[in-house]
Amino acid sequence: MKKSEPMSESYYYILLCLSKSPSHGYGIMQMTSELSKGEVTIGSGTMYGATSNMLKKGWITEIMSTEPGLERKRLYQLTEPGKHALETEIKRLQRMLDSAKGV
């Protein structure tokens, strides 16, 4: 089995948010706070650096908004490679949790 590199917390939450639905940066930042119960905050600099890198990796793609008034906002959508990267990270995290059982 090929060992996968751990994903940063920011990358994980961005992909997790996008697995639910396409979103813009601010929406991802808000959903991250909700999903992590306020424990993880993604700032705008981290958000846009991470999305830029994930666009280059092909994990996400930019789509056009169809909502009135939001036509100029950048919306991001998870791609199949991004879904695979997220699933691989979830499996890695699950293996870590499983190994800690009984401690």
Give a quick summary of the entry:
The chain is mainly alpha-helical. Helix content is 56%, strand content 10%. It has 4 helices and 3 strands; from the N terminus they run αβααββα.
Q: Regions with pLDDT < 50 over 5+ consecutive residues?
A: none
Question: Tally of extended strands?
Answer: 3
Q: Secondary-structure element order, as H and E?
A: HEHHEEH
Helix count from the secondary structure assignment: 4
Distance linking N and C termini = 26 Å
Rg, Cα atoms, Å = 15 Å
Provide mean pLDDT, rounded.
90
Could you list some keywords that capture this structure?
103 residues; mainly alpha; 3 strands; 10% strand
Outline the structure in words.
- The structure is a single chain.
- This protein is mostly helical and about 100 residues long.
- It is built from four helices and three strands.
- α1 crosses α2 and α1 crosses α4.
- The longest helix has 21 residues.
- The radius of gyration is 15 Å and the shape is globular.
Task: Describe the SSE topology.
Elements: H1 9-20, E1 23-24, H2 25-35, H3 44-57, E2 60-63, E3 75-78, H4 80-100
Antiparallel strand pairs: 1-3, 2-3
Helix pairs in contact: 1-2, 1-4
